[in-house]
Amino acid sequence: MYKTSLILAAGDGKRMKSETPKVMHKVCGYPLVKHVFNAVKTVSDDEPIVITGRCGELLHNLFNDEARYAEQTERRGTAHAVMCGEHYLKGKSGYVTITAGDMPMITGATFEKLVLTAINNNMSACVLTAVVDNADGYGRIIRDIDGSVKGIVEHRDATDEQKSIREINTSIYCFNIEDLLDSLKLVDSNNAQGELYLTDTLGILRSQGKKVGACIVDDVTESMGINDRVQLSQAEKMMRKRINENLMRQGVTFIDPDNTYVEACVEIGADTVIYAGNVLTGNTVIGKNCIIYPNNRIEDSVIGDDAEIQSSVILSSKIGDGTTVGPYAYVRPETVVGNKARIGDFVEIKKSQIGDGTKVSHLTYVGDAKIGKNCNMGCGTVFVNYDGKNKYKTVVGDHVFIGCNANLIAPLNIGDNALIAAGSTVTEDVGDNDLCIARSRQTNKKGWVLNYKNWKQ
Ligand code: UD1
Ligand code: CA
Fold it and tell me: Which of 132, 169, 226, 407 has the highest CB neighbour count under 10 A?
């Protein structure tokens, strides 16, 4: 049986009060529509059809060739939106799952249940419904005395008696494709909003003697649609809980999951312990058996196994196995730190490679550098990579010891096993095994201070 899907994403979402179209607002790192897309893919043999409006370009950039697109230039209702994508469905037989694009909590499992209900019962249409305490604003499910679905009535068109119904339309449906296309031709705009309602197709199909049914969602929170920023924050909280609980089930310890912010695509290995106040975002992958102490921001970065990270910011970088970072380190993009290395307090590293076993323990800036294995950067080392116009590279060999408060003026090469005396300002290359002292010699003037004081009086 052929199965495809269609996402309604043409709405502006006026209540968001935003320049950004509603479906592009993010929950736990993904736009709303991306959550829906990922879930609906489970019931789609080919690329989901996305109905776009004002946000067309953004949606194209989001899904590229993983989706098919149709533009709805005028907002004439949900049935009209589906009609805009009709050309993808014509001539096909099978089922299409239709969903609103603003329901981030919906899961693949629920879509599967809906589609199976439709197919196994040979239905022309099956709507996903939810039983809610406050049904204000939603379309109500009208059932016959035998429990079968007669149709859907929109809130604005409902009688007082219909308004007391608490079973609502979630805006997710599975249709037999041919029956859907036939019924769309019969939808009119005789309603309070003068729009073409997709919901009308259920009543139309039923009146044609076709089988129409409903599938009640097990977890009401899945049916949540986002209309404003308050709901957006509620979804964020629910999604966070879902993500963290999934990770806990995979063997990750969270000391305080309510205060740990992990985005949807982050991966974390088993036996890693995550303390409170961590913000782990983007395509971050954290290995096994790490300790992520409080208050880190780690974005688009890969952390190896057995690493320990504390109160630091790590962006688009890679940290090796058994390496410790922080507290208070700032690792900027394109940095690769090797295994069993140490990046200590108040260290900033930018676009640099740090070899295995190398220690950059405190108060150091490393920029545009390649540092070899088992080196030691003394406290206050500065890689002087910028002359006000251009950036230059410094290459440091293996087993190099750099004394405290040295300035390494790039471009510069420092050979293996070299030693740089503390306080040096190094402007010329240093060979293998060489000692470099680049500072003026110390002079002590005997008793000078006493003379100075006497002179002043
Ligand atoms: C819709 C349903 C209602 C259901 C509710 C659930 C209809 C007529 N009503 O009402 O039964 O309880 O969702 O949240 O379908 N859209 C377009 N183009 C349009 C109109 C809408 O793409 O011309 C998209 C919107 O972007 C949105 C979805 O369709 O993703 C639903 O539209 P919306 O206007 O929010 O419908 P509701 O009034 O919420
Ligand atoms: Ca809505």
Answer: 226
